[in-house]
Specification:
Blueprint lengths: L1 E2 L2 H21 L5 E7 L3 H17 L2 E7 L5 H13 L5 E4 L9 H6 L12 H9 L7 H12 L8 E5 L6 H10 L3 E5 L6 H5 L4 E4 L17 E4 L3 E3 L2 E3 L4 H4 L5 E2 L7 H19 L1
Parallel strand pairs: 1-11, 2-3, 2-4, 5-6, 5-7, 7-8, 8-11
Antiparallel strand pairs: 9-10
Helix pairs in contact: 1-10, 2-10, 6-7, 6-10
The protein binds NADP nicotinamide-adenine-dinucleotide phosphate.
Length: 279
């Protein structure tokens, strides 16, 4: 059994990105990311300042727009339109969740897909679906990195994704399919979930139910990616019962320190890509 060290993998990628950003600057382009935070959700505020810090560390210029919870949908969309037109901004991220009554699907649709570094625009999802080049949502992109870091061959393997959200489950399933895995997507109405998971060579759990995936769900020798992050008594818990799964899996991500550190790193990678393509 081997623990996949998302923190170390992420740090290695950030070092590379830093060099690539410096090289792009020499050519006259400074990658720019705009982040929009609406309202005062404390968790979102922490995520946004982590993104700001990460940009600064590798030399990406970030501009954070902090708006009140009373911001109207029209003025939010106006801001997005002005960022779409801003040549110094290569990536635009709207921090979710948005306070009610703002409609995230409508707001996200205002982002130019060529600046959609979070990968949540409907056009970006369509590009992924048909296999066209486009931004890959950050967490799924990070998950694929972690799976590939194990060196296992993905092609022909049984991959099971538990969770079908637009942000994680569905894009991960498409990415695995793109690598020629045989993919099963499970959700809250799936029957015999334990038996389906126990047949997975690659198991991705993106549920949000701490410890639900016990040892019985794990095929001996599987690669197990735990996306879940739920606070239990002040501590982050994954969807996988680590102490049981670790004895059966060949490779497993811990929580914290697995998928989490990869998400912002992939945002940086997407922003650099946007600056290269459209800078
Ligand atoms: P979500 O939108 O709430 O989706 C959860 C999915 O799990 C749904 O598809 C749901 O099925 C399924 N599900 C719920 N209960 C289930 C059950 N008992 N059996 C089987 N499937 C069940 O969540 P998400 O945004 O995808 O996030 C999932 C988890 O990943 C959360 O803990 C979140 O905090 C975490 N996350 C972590 C990162 C990171 O960077 N580390 C990033 C994103 C998300 P239905 O569709 O049938 O309801």
């Amino acid at each position: 059994m081997s623990i996949i060290d998302g923190k170390a993998i992420s740090a290695g990628i950030r070092e590379e990105l830093k060099k690539e950003v410096a090289a792009l600057k020499v050519q006259g382009t400074v990658p720019g990311l705009a982040v929009i935070l609406v309202g005062d959700d404390p968790a979102s505020a922490v995520y946004v300042s982590n993104k700001e810090k990460a940009c600064e560390e590798i030399g990406i210029r970030s501009a954070v727009h902090r708006l009140s919870a009373q911001t109207s949908q029209e003025s939010l969309i106006e801001l997005i339109k002005s960022l779409n037109a801003d040549k110094a901004i290569h990536g635009i991220l709207v921090q979710l969740p948005l306070p009610k009554p703002l409609d995230p699907l409508v707001v996200l649709r205002a982002v130019n897909p060529d600046k959609d570094v979070d990968g949540l625009h409907v056009v970006t999802a369509g590009r992924l679906f048909v296999g066209e080049k486009g931004f890959i949502p950050c967490t799924p992109r990070g998950i694929m990195h972690l799976i590939k870091s194990t060196g296992i061959e993905i092609s022909g393997k049984n991959a099971v994704v538990v969770g079908r959200s637009n942000m994680v489950g569905k894009p991960v399933a498409h990415l695995l399919l793109g690598e020629n895995a045989t993919v099963t997507i499970c959700h809250s109405r799936t029957r015999n979930l334990d038996a389906i998971c126990a047949n997975a060579d690659i198991l991705v759990a993106a549920i949000g139910r701490p410890g639900m995936i016990t040892g019985d769900y794990i095929k001996p020798g599987a690669v197990v990616i735990d996306v879940g992050t739920t606070k239990v008594d002040g501590k982050l818990k994954g969807d996988v019962l680590f102490e049981e799964a670790v004895n059966k899996a060949a490779f497993i991500t811990p929580v914290p320190g697995g998928v989490g550190p990869m998400t912002i790193t992939m945002l940086l990678a997407n922003t650099l890509e946007a600056a290269r393509m459209y800078g």
